[in-house]
């Protein structure tokens, strides 16, 4: 056992956390309002406290000290002394062991206990009371680590945004039921990087894997008591720690190895990160880390009523990113994942919170300014979820250049259009064109719109066409959780059916929506499992379902229907890659002409004539045609014509100019139909009910690459 000195030496305040330098460990932790901070050392075998030191120095609000001869593997935690004065926002309680905000590894998950609360639960004075019980026995301990890892020739794929196809997936849900060679442990990073998973992503044309939270998170106590858990992970405990539940052996190197394998296959890894709140909840929540170190600084408090926390997140608390040290922690965490794990990008949960200053949301907030100027972070993919429950919480289109944004307008319009709702043609046209009506400013590109039909939060694609209502009874919230407005339809029967006509219609609508997603300008995002008909049985809020409700059912992928849909999605991705007009790098407004008299984008009715005002406003109008043209890098012309018919009857449509030969590339109602070159004298085509067709123009003459502007 290590022999400890009587006191710590001063150490340095310049690097926060526990930093091993080969001769010992420097400890540094921020607290503006603490009066004393103690370092507690624990036995690695029975995890009892074996030494306690007062951090001897306080420099620029950083408490710090140095423990010589300490090595990686050392178990530790903090205790903070100061006023317990909830009315003024202070909740110091030295009886509570605190996690280091910069901890890189923990001994395990939280074991919930009443002792973790700074006040006496069930006291009539609620959080104004004071609890003197030691929480250490029920708290995970921090572990000093050495982050050294041999990355060898790992290179970030840096897939251009215009070529990016995202799949959103849950580490556990994606791999839990997938049988694979070499037996990687299901539900872990080992399985994520397995050859079979990579082959599946390659088959689909996925370039970028967006993972639900993999930072250490804690399930809410009330869920555990109900036999459920926080499956999604939007409840962060430690911002620098990989979630232990996804590690087969406990080593963070498993994640590094998975990322290295994915990078070698050309696939990027984007993390969904939650920097808007923590798992400590409201003022009635536990004291685990930030609350005990400096509640009044780490969290936003209600002005004039500092006992209570601002709850812009709907999760009980809001991190105070207006404070430079809290902002520094977030930026240090992001850089840590980028540098030490080679993460390719970040999707920011409830991103308006991150840009909300005391006066409101500001796209020039300190957080956004810091990210955009950062030499590391600014080179990564940055994706915002542009809404939150707070005031002015819907900010789609208002994020600064450099950020892409989840596009819920695309999701809702696409669902309504293919459901057959009236007067959707104007909105679906704007979404197909990359939502330039909302995003085309300050030099932003179409990729700024992350187009989605489904995501973890809501129905799967199979359920969008199978359920008109949510069915969330298993969540134990009387079925009232999750959105009641899903823009879905069951097409005649709620839930499963054996009716072949309904099954065929549902499959048609799914394929049409998927084709709309893949052939629209912007960045397409698939939900893992939609490519083979994954269902959650009508549950549109599976945040607490760590079971087959959420785990991908790979048996469905092996069915004839599953194989057909998987091959269809792969075909869509291949067509998108082959045709630059389907993935434009710049917004098309009909002003640029790749060839004389042909604008880069145009909209047409069934008669092949440009859409008029009456057609745009016609409530009964359905068929919509969009012709797009662009020049490739070598100057060659690429022109496609896409027709969408959400109606219940086939429609004969005339092809617009120019004169020439068209090739029918895809008919979503006949997914296995081979491409067919139409005769030069063919000027019309039948667009089947609930179907989408895509054609490519075969140019002739010498003017194919000219620019008439």
Q: Key features?
A:
709 residues; alpha/beta; 8-stranded parallel β-barrel; 17 helices; disordered C terminus
Write up what this structure looks like:
It is a single chain. This protein is of the alpha/beta class and 709 residues long. It is 21% helix and 21% strand. The chain is built from 17 helices and 32 strands. The protein has an eight-stranded parallel β-barrel with strand order 11-12-15-18-21-22-23-24. Strands 25-26-27-32-29-30 form a six-stranded antiparallel sheet, covered by helices on one side. A four-stranded antiparallel sheet has the order 1-2-6-5, with no helix packed on it. Strand 1 (17-20) and strand 2 form a beta hairpin. The chain is elongated, with a radius of gyration of 28 Å. The chain starts with 16 loop residues before the first strand and ends in an 11-residue tail after the last strand. This is Glycogen debranching protein GlgX. It holds the Pfam family CBM_48. Residues 174-576 form the Glycosyl hydrolase family 13 catalytic domain. InterPro entries: GH, GH13_cat_dom, GlgX_Isoamylase_N_E_set, Glyco_hydro_13_N, Glyco_hydro_b, Glycogen_debranch_GlgX, Ig-like_fold, Ig_E-set. Keywords: Glycosidase, Hydrolase.
How are the SSEs ordered, and which strands pair?
Layout: E1 17-20, E2 24-30, E3 36-42, E4 49-54, E5 57-59, E6 62-68, E7 75-81, E8 84-85, E9 90-91, E10 142-143, E11 166-169, H1 171-175, H2 189-192, H3 195-204, E12 208-211, E13 215-217, H4 221-225, E14 236-242, H5 253-264, E15 268-273, H6 290-298, E16 301-302, E17 305-309, H7 324-340, E18 345-348, H8 351-354, E19 356-357, E20 360-361, H9 366-373, E21 381-384, E22 404-407, H10 408-419, H11 425-432, H12 436-439, E23 449-452, H13 461-464, H14 500-518, E24 523-527, H15 554-557, H16 560-578, E25 601-604, H17 613-617, E26 624-631, E27 637-645, E28 651-654, E29 661-667, E30 676-677, E31 684-687, E32 691-698
Parallel strand pairs: 11-12, 11-24, 12-15, 15-18, 18-21, 21-22, 22-23, 23-24
Antiparallel strand pairs: 1-2, 2-6, 3-4, 3-7, 5-6, 7-10, 8-9, 13-14, 16-17, 19-20, 25-26, 26-27, 27-32, 28-31, 29-30, 29-32
């Amino acid at each position: 056992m290590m022999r400890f000195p009587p006191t710590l030496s001063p150490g340095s305040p310049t690097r926060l956390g526990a930093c091993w330098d080969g001769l010992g460990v420097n400890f540094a932790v921020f607290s503006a309002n603490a009066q004393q901070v103690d370092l507690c050392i624990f036995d690695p075998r029975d995890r009892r406290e074996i030494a306690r030191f007062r951090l001897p120095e306080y420099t620029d609000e950083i408490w710090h000290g140095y423990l010589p001869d300490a090595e990686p593997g050392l178990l530790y935690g903090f205790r903070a002394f100061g006023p317990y004065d909830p009315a003024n926002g202070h909740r110091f309680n030295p009886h509570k062991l605190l996690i280091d905000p910069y901890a890189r590894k923990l001994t395990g998950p939280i074991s919930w206990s009443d002792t973790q609360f700074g006040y006496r639960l069930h006291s009539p004075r609620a959080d104004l009371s004071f609890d003197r019980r030691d929480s250490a026995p029920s708290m995970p301990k921090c572990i000093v680590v050495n982050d050294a890892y041999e990355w060898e020739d790992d290179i970030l794929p840096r897939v251009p945004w215009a070529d990016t196809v995202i799949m959103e997936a849950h580490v556990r849900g994606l791999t839990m039921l997938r049988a694979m060679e070499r037996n990687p442990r299901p539900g872990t990073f080992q399985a994520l990087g397995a050859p079979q998973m990579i082959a599946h992503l390659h088959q689909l044309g996925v370039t970028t894997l967006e993972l639900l939270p993999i930072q250490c998170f804690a399930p809410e106590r009330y869920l555990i008591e109900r036999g459920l858990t926080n499956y999604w992970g939007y409840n962060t405990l430690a911002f620098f720690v990989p979630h232990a539940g996804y590690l087969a052996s406990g080593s963070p190197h498993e994640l590094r190895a998975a990322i290295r394998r994915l990078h070698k296959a050309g696939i990027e890894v984007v993390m969904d990160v939650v920097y808007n709140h923590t798992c400590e909840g409201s003022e009635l929540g536990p004291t685990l880390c930030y609350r005990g170190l400096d509640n009044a600084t780490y969290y936003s408090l209600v002005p004039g009523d500092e006992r209570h926390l601002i709850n812009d997140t709907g999760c009980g608390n809001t991190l105070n990113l207006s404070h430079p040290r809290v902002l520094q922690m977030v930026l240090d965490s992001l850089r840590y994942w980028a540098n030490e794990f080679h993460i390719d990008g970040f999707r920011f949960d409830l991103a308006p919170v991150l840009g909300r200053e005391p006066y409101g949301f500001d796209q020039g907030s300190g957080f956004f300014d810091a990210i955009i100027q950062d030499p590391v972070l600014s080179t990564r993919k940055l994706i915002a979820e542009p809404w939150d429950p707070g005031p002015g919480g819907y900010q789609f289109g208002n994020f600064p250049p450099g950020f892409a944004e989840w596009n819920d307008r695309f999701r809702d319009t696409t669902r309504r259009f293919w459901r057959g709702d009236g007067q959707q043609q104007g909105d679906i046209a704007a979404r197909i064109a990359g939502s330039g009506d909302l995003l085309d400013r300050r030099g932003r590109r179409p990729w700024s719109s992350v187009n989605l039909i489904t995501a973890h939060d809501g129905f799967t694609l199979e359920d969008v066409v199978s359920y008109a209502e949510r069915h969330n009874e298993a969540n134990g919230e009387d079925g009232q959780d999750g959105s009641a407005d899903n823009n879905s339809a069951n097409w005649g029967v709620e839930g499963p059916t054996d009716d072949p006509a309904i099954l065929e219609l549902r499959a048609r609508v799914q394929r049409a929506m998927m084709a709309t997603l893949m052939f629209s300008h912007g960045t397409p995002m698939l939900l893992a499992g939609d490519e083979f008909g994954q269902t959650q049985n009508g549950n549109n809020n599976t945040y607490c379902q760590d079971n087959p409700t959420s785990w991908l059912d790979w048996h469905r992928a092996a069915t004839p229907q599953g194989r057909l849909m998987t091959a269809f999605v792969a075909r869509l991705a291949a067509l998108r890659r082959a045709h630059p007009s389907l993935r434009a790098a710049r917004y098309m407004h009909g002003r640029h002409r790749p060839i004389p008299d042909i604008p880069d984008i145009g909209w047409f009715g069934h008669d092949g004539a440009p859409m008029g005002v009456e057609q745009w406003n016609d409530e009964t109008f359905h068929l919509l045609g969009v012709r797009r043209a662009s020049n490739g890098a070598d100057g060659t012309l690429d022109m496609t014509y896409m027709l969408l018919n959400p109606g219940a009857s086939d429609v004969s449509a005339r092809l617009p100019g120019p004169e020439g030969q068209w090739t029918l590339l895809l008919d979503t109602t006949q997914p296995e139909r081979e491409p067919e070159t139409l005769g030069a004298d063919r000027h019309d085509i039948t667009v089947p009910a609930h179907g989408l067709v895509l054609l490519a123009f075969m140019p002739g003459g010498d003017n194919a690459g000219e620019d008439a502007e």
